[in-house]
Structures are given as structure tokens and as C-alpha cells.
Write a structure and sequence with these properties.
The chain is mainly β and about 120 residues long. It has no helices and eleven strands. Strand 4 and strand 5 form a beta hairpin.
Length: about 120
């Protein structure tokens, strides 16, 4: 029900925009979050956007470089990633749910940043 896309390979300092598209799911009432995970490491929260007022929150490691946004009409949430660093390399997942719940998960999209 959630499809993450937009990953790819970029060089240090490059940009990518990830998309999280919902199908069969109305996301208006859901907070949407992006997580990332490197094999062998714990999953890290990257960003979340609230449903009620689209307030956005960011992890310290991406603050100032990443921007999350949502288009409820298109049932899609975006993660604009600028000034990418090699340490941003990970599989990125989106998840949706009411408030702090994460009931729905996308399949993940790989982002690789080379130095």
C-alpha cells in the first residue's frame, strides 16, 4: 500500500528526491515518516510529517539538508535530499500511521552516495 521510489546512486554533494506513494490508502489522517537502515545497523528515523498541520521533524543528521513534504491529493509524500553525504547511504523506507503509529510500510529504496 506504500511504494517508495526515487533512490539511486549519486556523488557526494548530490541530490535525490524520494517519493512515497500510497495506493488503496487515504493518507490525509496519517503521519508519514521516513526511516533508513544500513545492514547491520539499527533503523534510524530520518523525518516525519504530521497529518494535522504538516509540521515536519528531522533527525539531527539530516537537519538542514533534507526536506519532507506531502501532497494528500496525490497521496504522496516526498523527501528532498540535498548535500548528500556518503554516510546517507542506506535503504530508505516510508511508513504511515495515525499519530506515532507506523501501521503501513513501503518496501524500501536504496540510496548510495559515493565520495
Amino acid at each position: 500500500q506504500l511504494q517508495a521510489s526515487g533512490g539511486g546512486s549519486v556523488q557526494d554533494g548530490g541530490s535525490l528526491r524520494l517519493s512515497c506513494a500510497a495506493s488503496g490508502l487515504v493518507i490525509d489522517d496519517f503521519a508519514i515518516a521516513w526511516f533508513r537502515q544500513v545492514p547491520g545497523k539499527e533503523r534510524e528515523g530520518v523525518s516525519v510529517i504530521r497529518s494535522i498541520d504538516s509540521t515536519a521533524y528531522y533527525g539531527d543528521s539530516v537537519k538542514g539538508r533534507f526536506t519532507i513534504s506531502r501532497d494528500n491529493a496525490k497521496r504522496t509524500v516526498y523527501l528532498q535530499m540535498n548535500s548528500l553525504k556518503p554516510e546517507d547511504t542506506a535503504v530508505y523506507y516510508c511508513a504511515a500511521g495515525r499519530a506515532a503509529r507506523r501501521d503501513y510500510w513501503g518496501q524500501g529504496t536504496l540510496v548510495t552516495v559515493s565520495s
